[in-house]
Task: inverse folding
């Protein structure tokens, strides 16, 4: 019987590239998004093993129902990938947007893991994967909620790796740098080491196959973010203040 993987936010960008990669490897693939018409036209014909669900990851019962319908006997892998970014150059925080970012980027990961966990635990096998970001290692200006939400996901996965040791379940946290997707196509700032989504998905799949605990890529970004994470915070504030001096003070 084919292995089963469910990918939240699998209708565009990194999620869709992962869906195609797993379908090509013989998996049955469930994907969800709020608007499944974002999937490429004719995907059912090109990828008959992909099944799409119109589900918002902040709606835990709906996500659990979709995963249960897709895989009544449980999943082999879940990728909690759905995420949004709401950057701003304004001084005043957009609290409504911040709540939404946390609800999707953190709440959505919790809901996805819950949808997969219980049957995986019964089977003593399964792989929980979360897509965080290199942004989770530092507090980026104008992106507090995004950085904070991804930081939460990184630490949640680190804890779960300890908690689930010996259960047969694996936990992988993926921290991409800039990947060329609809999320980043709206950015108006430089994106060093920008990578095509297909290549990013291939690297992520390899890391999942290898059961890597924490995968930070591409490697130059891994070095930069590690240095920025470890440097004295006064130095970090000085560098970032200089870099982002043109931010609006409205
Ligand atoms: N691209 C990058 O450079 C980059 C770097 C680091 C990390 N990431 C992370 O990688 C993940 C995928 O990002 P991407 O770049 O591929 O973005 P994307 O192309 O915008 O895709 C996001 C996916 O998530 C879905 N989604 C968003 N909110 C949702 C919700 N409430 N419920 C269900 N689905 C939802 C979207 O579909 P709907 O809008 O129709 O719901 C879409 O399928 C995100 O977690 C992002 O933070 C991306």
Result:
């Amino acid at each position: 019987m084919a292995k089963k993987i469910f990918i939240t936010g699998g209708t565009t960008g990194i999620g869709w590239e992962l869906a195609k990669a797993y379908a090509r490897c013989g998996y049955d693939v469930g994907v969800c998004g709020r608007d499944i018409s974002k999937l490429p036209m004719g995907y059912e014909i090109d990828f008959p093993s992909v099944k799409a669900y119109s589900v918002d990851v902040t709606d835990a019962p709906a996500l659990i129902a979709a995963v249960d319908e897709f895989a009544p006997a449980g999943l082999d892998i879940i990728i909690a990938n759905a995420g949004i970014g709401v950057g701003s150059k304004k001084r005043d925080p957009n609290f409504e947007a911040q709540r939404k970012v946390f609800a999707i980027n953190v709440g959505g990961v919790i809901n996805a893991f819950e949808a997969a966990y219980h049957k995986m635990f019964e089977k003593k096998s399964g792989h929980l994967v979360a897509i965080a970001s290199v942004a989770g290692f530092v507090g980026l200006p104008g992106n507090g909620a995004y950085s904070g939400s991804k930081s939460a996901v990184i630490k949640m996965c680190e804890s779960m790796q300890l908690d689930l040791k010996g259960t047969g379940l694996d936990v992988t946290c993926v921290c991409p740098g800039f990947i060329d997707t609809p999320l980043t196509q709206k950015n108006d700032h430089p994106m060093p080491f920008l990578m095509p989504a297909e290549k990013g998905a291939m690297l992520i799949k390899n890391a999942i196959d290898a059961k890597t605990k924490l995968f930070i890529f591409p490697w130059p970004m891994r070095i930069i973010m590690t240095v920025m994470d470890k440097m004295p915070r006064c130095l970090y504030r000085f560098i970032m203040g200089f870099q982002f001096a043109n931010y609006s003070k409205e």
The mean pLDDT is 95.
